[in-house]
Design brief:
This protein has 598 residues and is of the alpha+beta class. It has twelve helices and 28 strands. It has a nine-stranded mixed β-sheet with strand order 17-20-15-14-28-27-23-24-26, covered by helices on one side. A seven-stranded mixed β-sheet has the order 7-6-3-4-18-19-16. A six-stranded mixed β-sheet has the order 9-8-10-11-13-12, with helices on both faces.
């Protein structure tokens, strides 16, 4: 029995070659085998080799989930290999500790050419990746991070942080995703353009990027973010950028001690996804269900019809025995009427809503995008949704052991994500059901929102905002509509105290704690006012809802590295639309962080 189990395990874990001829090998999952504890986009690096003497077209399929009998998601990528050619394919998969990954190579007819698999095991601690040319510099950076700061800092780092010397920088931002922070102690000129961009986008999606200028020997990389001015962190999209002259400098210590250490050792803050989920909840299509009063009314009408009225008519006709036929007839008729009345509230065609939250700063037109799709289906069956280029699946978290958060998974078969050619996703849905899909991508806009001097800001994003706010540590400025290219004088806008719109951080109150850069105790909070929940459902969405969940400590955390925040709502899509895309609502929430005043 033991020998049989060992043989089976060896067959699954070792790259397999079928008689048709193709070998499949998993080279890496995550960042040098480090994977996050909860599902996040990570890199699956696969080497596929064609040992045959003829060219071969094939499809690489990666099945991911806790149970590979019914995987939650299958990722598919088409490729073609020449005689004896081997190729590395990087696939973005949504995975975490406890999931299993099985990779197969199929020919155009669907026949198995090769197969291998791996189970994702837990990696200890929050990961700090160090990218350097000289290993001595890597070890010096690791030692400095480990032993800097107070006794409490050193204990926290010893318990929570693990290090990895990165040998080869990923070419995609999601290749860095398992890391909380990345230290760049190597010349950016030695990296390919895609590798440099991946580092920048890693920070824009919420990571910490630390630049060691002595080892970089290059001030052109991210020059707009304080080149030559080491010290305090700068906001980069949703993440942070920190510069240090050398690994032995006090500025390097600042990135890994005190308040800046907390985001590294504490659980990841889900505020960004909370902002997306809240915006989708308020802006996307929602199915309306009959209320209790509606059901009770129909029940009273049915009882009156099938009882007193039915028998009063039959007694007048002296045909009481007909009740054997009239009672079931009335029951069927009322049931049909109930179905028709309920169906009238349901969609008659497939709807695809796009709700996006774009994270920017005032120094770059690049946006890190959290894109939330909502499928509202009038019938049962698979639905194919085209995806934007560079988009990666980020949720909902399908892999946890608790029940899945969307009803569409009850159809079975999981999701199919086609990565090439033409990225798209196939989602099984039920009749009159809602399926939510979370994606992460990037978008370059014509410009950003930035200061124009004299207390003014100018909108160069190319988006027309139907409503906009500017928030600083003390105040909220109601900017109203802000068109494309419009310059707004903040001082002339209506100003209200920020604390008048915050403090709704009661534990069971739904407002998101969005935009917060580190975990913080919310401080004094209050619950909902009488009738506030019902009133909120009837009112249109307001950008103020994204700050109502802040506590006093959250306000301080949000403005540690910012002088202000611009929030705008535009009725435009963040992903391309075409003739084949279903109708639906399109909204984009743009969040622009302003750097501290010099």
């Amino acid at each position: 029995m033991v020998a049989w189990a060992a043989t089976l395990a060896a067959f699954w874990l070792v790259p397999q070659v079928s008689r048709a001829g193709a070998s499949v090998l998993i080279e890496d999952i995550g960042l040098q085998s480090h994977v996050p504890g909860t599902p996040e986009p990570v890199r699956l690096r696969v080497r596929v080799t064609n040992p045959a003497a003829t060219a071969q077209a094939l499809e690489v399929v990666a099945a991911v989930g806790p149970d590979l009998e019914t995987p939650a998601v299958r990722y598919r990528a088409a490729t073609s290999l020449g005689p004896g050619e081997g190729r590395i394919i990087d696939l973005p998969i949504l995975a975490g500790v406890g999931d299993k990954v099985e990779v197969t190579a199929l020919d155009p007819a669907g026949r198995l050419l090769g197969q291998t698999g791996r189970e994702l095991r837990e990696s200890r601690g929050a990961l700090v990746g160090i990218l350097c040319v000289d290993e001595a510099v890597c070890r010096a950076a690791q030692s400095r991070i480990s032993f800097s700061g107070s006794d409490e800092d050193r204990v926290a780092k010893r318990r929570s942080i693990t290090f990895e010397f990165v040998r080869q920088a990923p070419h995609q931002w999601w290749g860095w995703q398992p890391a909380r922070a990345v230290v760049l102690a190597a010349p950016p000129a030695d990296l390919a353009p895609a590798q440099r961009e991946a580092l920048e986008l890693f920070a824009r999606h919420g990571g910490l990027l630390v630049l060691v200028e002595e080892a970089m020997r290059d001030r052109e990389f991210l020059r707009a973010y304080g080149a030559g001015l080491p010290g305090s962190a700068r906001v980069l999209g949703r993440g942070r950028l920190h510069r240090a002259p050398s690994v032995s400098s006090a500025a390097f210590d600042e990135a890994f001690t005190g308040q800046t250490l907390q985001p590294l050792v504490d659980p990841r803050v889900a505020s960004a996804s909370e902002a997306l989920h809240w915006a989708r909840r308020r802006l996307a299509t929602s199915l309306s269900f009959p209320g209790l009063g509606w059901v009770i009314g129909w029940l009273i009408a049915y009882i009156a019809l099938v009882g007193p009225l039915n028998f009063w008519v039959l007694r007048r006709l002296r045909r009481v025995e007909w009740a054997w036929f009239t009672v079931p007839f009335i029951a069927v008729a009322v049931g049909g009427a109930l179905y028709a009345a309920s169906a009238a509230r349901r969609p008659a065609e497939l709807l695809l809503d796009q709700i996006a939250v774009e994270w920017m700063d005032d120094a770059s037109p690049m946006a890190a995008v959290d894109l939330g799709l909502r499928l509202v289906s009038p019938e049962r069956g698979p639905v194919t949704v085209p995806l934007p280029e560079m988009a990666v699946l980020s949720g909902p978290h399908l892999f946890r052991r608790h029940p899945p958060p969307i009803r569409s998974l009850a159809v079975g078969g999981g999701w199919n994500v086609r990565l090439s050619p033409g990225p798209a996703m196939e989602v099984p849905v039920l009749q009159w059901s809602v399926a939510d899909i979370d994606l992460q991508t990037v978008r370059r806009l014509p410009g950003t929102v930035h200061r124009a001097g004299g207390g003014r800001i100018v909108n160069e994003t190319g988006l027309a905002f139907a409503q906009a706010l500017f928030v600083d540590r003390d105040s909220v400025y109601m900017l109203g509509e802000v068109g494309v290219g419009v310059t707004v004088d903040i001082g002339s806008a209506r100003r209200e105290a920020l604390r008048a719109h915050t403090g709704k951080c009661w534990p069971y109150w739904p407002y998101p704690r969005a935009l917060v850069t580190r975990p913080a105790s919310p401080g004094p909070c209050e619950g909902p006012a009488p009738g506030e929940i019902d009133r909120l459902r009837r009112e249109p969405f307001s950008l103020l809802e994204l700050v109502r969940g802040w506590g006093r400590a959250d306000i301080a955390a949000a403005f540690e590295t910012r002088s202000g925040l611009f929030l705008g709502l535009a009725a435009t899509p963040s992903m391309p639309t075409g003739p084949g895309l279903p109708k639906g609502r399109r909204y984009t929430v743009t969040v622009v962080s302003f750097a501290p005043a010099p």
